[in-house]
Amino acid sequence: MAAPGLLAWVVTSKYLNHLPLYRLEQMAAREQVTLSSSTLAEWVGRTGVALQPLVDRLIRHLLAGQHASCR
Q: If we measure between CA atoms, which residue out of 8, 2, 68, 59 comes closest to residue 33?
């Protein structure tokens, strides 16, 4: 089970810093932490699923704001 800070590091590193999961695996190994690419991929997928309701709400909010400003 991963802590929220670790999940944030993985997702930020992957999408903001454009690091592939094998590089994150290597970085963790240098700190004597064993993380497999498959585990990292599962965490990324589960984080995406968990954040989807937030994404959906932000889209609705942004679209509603555009419609209101066009009136």
A: 2
Contact 14, 23 (CB under 8 A): no
Identify the pLDDT of residue 34.
94
Structural element, H or E, at residue 39:
helix 37-70
Give the total number of structural domains in the chain. Answer: 1
Task: For 18-68, write each residue's pLDDT tens digit.
Answer: 999 999 999 999 999 999 999 999 999 999 999 999 999 999 999 888 655
Predicted pLDDT of residue 69? 53
Q: How many CA atoms lie within 13 A of 5 on its CB side?
A: 0
Domain residue limits at 44: 4-70
Exposed, middle or buried: residue 40 (CB in 10 Å: 0-12, 13-18, 19+)?
buried
Residue 37 to residue 20: CA distance in whole angstroms: 9
